[in-house]
Amino acid sequence: MNLSPTQYEALVKRASPKSKAPKTILCAFLIGGGICVIGQLLRSWFLSSNISETHTATLVAASLILLSALLTGLGVYDNLAKYAGAGTLVPITGFANAVVSPALEFKSEGFILGLGAKIFIIAGPVIAYGTIASVIYGVIYWLFTAAF
Amino acid sequence: MELLMDCIKAFLVGGLLCAIGQILIDYTKLTPARILVSFVVSGVILGGIGVYEPLVKFAGAGATVPLTGFGYSLANGVREAVDKEGLIGALTGGLCASSGGITAAMLLAILVALFFHSHDKS
Question: Domain-by-domain residue ranges, chain B?
Fold first, then answer.
């Protein structure tokens, strides 16, 4: 069978499975939005109990991290992540999952260089680059406020 | 009914931020770790130029729960610390503001690892 590259490409395209992209995006939207609603219920509750805005933010984050850590321990979060994709990755619960999941997996390699080191395998870069970006912003902000 | 409206706004904005993450996964070669780093750094930039604050006012947890909100709290912390203490605040403000979440995650990782076992990833 003699095929030109373009014909071959068309054949490959026809044979490969259809992209599931729209469905994955919808799943991410629904589940990610759902997690934010849980956060909003907690936030409204804390704010209505006269807790300050700053403390509310910390408490909402900590509560969601607790929830995500338990669900990760039970193996539920990773199952949900198969359907939700970025819907479970982008919220703070995904950050918690990225810390707890390697803790479970690498516990067998010891508590120091196994668990202790590997919990930062994804969270480490996030914290490092986030903090560095905030330092750069802080210096720029200082220059502006000090100069004017 | 205000609670219902707050939840709808949180759902829409939070869902949208997650959908952006999914689009990045589906249509670019960015790995999940790179996407998380981009979200946090974007949050710092958007928080710094003052765009994220109105979104938080509007959507509440829909803006603070996604990782861009983590970046926003880093930027906020740095600005407050610089206001209070000058340039040294640029070094201390970020992690101070986000220390609660980071500490909770570390603590729970150890606790969960003590009581649970790794699950089959298949």
Answer: 2-115
